[in-house]
Write a structure and sequence with these properties.
heterodimer; A: disordered C terminus; B: 88 residues; 3-stranded antiparallel sheet; 34% strand
């Protein structure tokens, strides 16, 4: 897709971090969640934002955080959103999926749940998400499966769980769910764990091959920079930040994506500025739509990935205009340089 | 026969045409129909003839050309499961 030919009047979906409060302290948390932030939005403020999104016909809101179920008004907010016909996707650590919450979801076609699990065994998962989290998440998963609520298991692929992808796929299947694979990116607490958890080049190549062999695995748009040809035909071929999606933080600030919540990337705050104005004319959003890493312009894959993930480039290379350091073409270039050196 | 959005499909107008969203598969479908098609055409009350008349009233194109192009567009949407055809 060439965004210039298909500009959107509003996002297709957006991530909404409804709170930073979390009962876990995962070492790869993209937003360093732990405690509620001062000045998080009230239910009435959230409803007013939903009204704006509904008027713009935003199709889907993906809730994350923090743990969304720790927000006291979360179920009331979901109810309100569903009256507007907006689809909600909830990313949860699974530890609050009790009978009451799951019965709320049952039979509601506007809800999809993603339960985070970062390993097929307690040993691997708990190293990342904390002691006891594997079994607690699976208790929630069992309830979802029993009530036939559509859900997926979500794994952030790291060096610790890379070897368990097929086991994770099987685990998800055993509960009637899909596996969703997310990319590990160095934002939030992941900056501190980046060196420990990032995939090696060999593992990235292996992941690309594995994804190519398993077209049913969900990935969102995280992997366009490492996906082989067959996989790329399945979905988006570019970063969707500010083009198809964006992120609202717990206090109403709007960012290009959940991984780019730095002050310099804030497009505005919904307490002061209408969403449409931020989307259409915030300098940050306009700049993001023009991003074209100079080093990628002559790459034959440029039209297919537009430079990859700016968040990884920004955090690793300290340069938004740098190529995604984990992209397939980068490896090819490195190999050519290596061959010439030999 | 009237057209209606398929179950669990939503649509919105964009400058270049219509953007459909299939909520179960989380799939998008882009249709470059410019100002020919509008979301309300698929609310279950519009027949093909109504659409042709409406487009004719807004454009300079001949009824023949409109019919031909609208047929292509609606066939495309039917084939891809974005809309359904049903009896009035």
């Amino acid at each position: 897709m060439n965004y210039a030919e298909w500009p959107l009047s509003a996002p297709v979906n957006l991530t909404w971090e409804i709170t930073h409060k979390c009962n876990l302290s995962c070492i790869h948390c993209l937003s360093s969640s732990k405690s509620e932030l001062p000045g998080e939005l009230s239910l009435e403020e959230c409803k007013a934002i939903v009204d704006q999104l509904a008027a713009l016909k935003v199709f889907e809101i993906n809730f994350g955080g923090g743990e969304p179920f720790l927000k006291d008004y979360f179920l009331s907010l979901l109810d309100y959103i569903h009256t507007k016909g907006i689809v909600t996707c909830i990313s949860t650590n699974g530890t609050f999926l009790n009978e009451k919450a799951v019965s709320f979801f049952a039979g509601n076609s506007l809800i999809h749940i993603q339960v985070s699990l970062d390993g097929a065994t307690p040993e691997v998962n708990n190293k990342i998400r904390g002691e006891g989290t594997y079994h607690r998440a699976l208790e929630g998963v069992k309830l979802l499966a029993r009530e036939k609520v559509p859900f997926s298991l979500n794994i952030v692929v790291t060096s610790l769980n890379y070897g368990q992808l097929s086991e994770m796929k099987e685990l998800a299947r055993s509960y009637g769910a899909n596996l969703r694979v997310s990319r590990f990116r160095p934002s939030g607490r992941a900056r501190d764990s980046w060196d420990l958890l990032k995939l090696s080049t060999t593992q990235l190549e292996g992941l690309s091959e594995w994804l190519g062999q398993h077209p049913g695995i969900l990935t969102g748009d995280s992997f366009f920079s490492i996906s082989g040809k067959g996989r790329r035909e399945l979905g988006l071929d570019m970063c969707g930040a500010c083009k198809m999606t964006c992120c609202i933080d717990p206090c109403g600030s709007v960012y290009p994506c959940a991984f780019m919540q730095e002050t310099e990337f804030c497009g505005g705050n919904l307490r002061k500025t209408p969403f449409k104005e931020i989307w259409d004319s915030s300098p940050v959003f306009l700049k993001f739509r023009q991003l074209e890493p100079a080093s990628c312009r002559r790459c034959p894959r440029f039209s297919q990935c537009r430079g990859g993930c700016p968040a990884v480039a920004f955090y690793v290379k300290k340069d938004l205009n740098s190529a995604d350091p984990e992209c397939l073409a980068n490896w090819a270039r490195e190999e050519q340089i290596y061959e010439r050196t030999i | 026969m009237v057209f209606r959005l398929a179950d669990n499909v939503q649509v919105r107008k964009e400058s270049w045409g219509l953007l459909f969203y299939a909520q179960i598969q989380h799939r998008l479908f882009f249709v470059r129909s410019h100002d020919w098609l509008y979301p309300h055409y698929f609310d279950g009350t519009w027949t093909f003839d109504h659409m042709v008349k409406d487009v004719a009233s807004r454009t300079e194109n001949s009824a023949h050309l409109i019919e031909k192009n609208l047929q292509k567009l609606t066939d495309h949407l039917l084939k891809n499961g974005m809309v359904v055809h049903e009896l009035c």
